[in-house]
Amino acid sequence: MHSRLLPEWIRSRFPSAGAVESMRRRTYARGLATVCKEALCPNQGDCSERRTATFLILGNRCTRNCSFCGICAGRPEPVDPDEPHRVAGAVKSLGLRHTVITSVTRDDLSDGGAFVFAETIRSIRRLAPATSIEILVPDFQGSLHALETVINAGPDVIAHNLEMVPRLYSALRPEASYTRSLRVVESISARAVNVIVKSGIMVGLGETIAELREVISDLATVGCRALTIGQYLRPTRRQVPVQRFVPPAEFEWLRQLAISVGIRHVVAGPLVRSSYKAEETYRKLKSDTFD
To answer: Which segments of the chain have a pLDDT < 70?
Structure first.
């Protein structure tokens, strides 16, 4: 999105690109992708300066074609059996204290890529045992077996994003299901003992305050304990346009609302994304007993 079209509270916070290129060299030179680059995240500079990045596994082509997402859709490449080891090697060489691993959606795979997630977790545990691991998973088409494969590998945080209010699913992410995604969050909470359960939503797509209240309440009810709320920004002209730019004061109101219904930690703001300040969230919640 062109900077002239952005309100001042977003436009003024875009960082320089120097650190972004440095981080890209450290990851892409290893044949690895980051969701930071593939999804055109506006926080690339900020996060790169803090030596954090979200690795994108299972290729950079998604089998779904959500109309808000900057990741390319198409036929994915075959699974790379060495990818988990290379991700772990990058985590170790970068000296990361906390790493986030996510993926494109791979509906072409019988387990949705769950085994590769699990192998990546195990590889990081072997090579960088002091690094905490956050996993942002797709819905695995609702497969509990796939979800348990990831849970049993022992990550510290498991996230699954609802992304938006249910009314918008049919238009913006028709291959997904709000009910199914909410069930994924609930299943993580029920099965993953001592794991932080996390989700994320976007605003500015045409939702109402009443609809946001409902989503936030749903997440609290199913056991979500960490939540990110960010402004939808149109990655390119191929994606749907922004319906409204939400001012910072409203993000603070939404943060307080989420806390009031039982979500323990909320990061909300115009440039917040799923993995933004992920390490800080984990450190604050790691001793939480979830009673």
So the answer is: 1-4, 11-53, 287-291
CATH number of 3-285: 3.20.20.70
Q: pLDDT (tens digit, 9 = 90+) per residue, 65-77?
A: 999 887 888 999 9
- Report pLDDT digits (tens) over 45-57: 555 555 566 899 9
> Token digits for 140?
């695995």
Dihedral sign (CA 180, 244, 104, 276): negative
Q: Taking the domains of the chain in order of start, what are their residue ranges?
A: 3-285
Rounded to the nearest 10°, the torsion over CA 109, 112, 113, 117 is -170
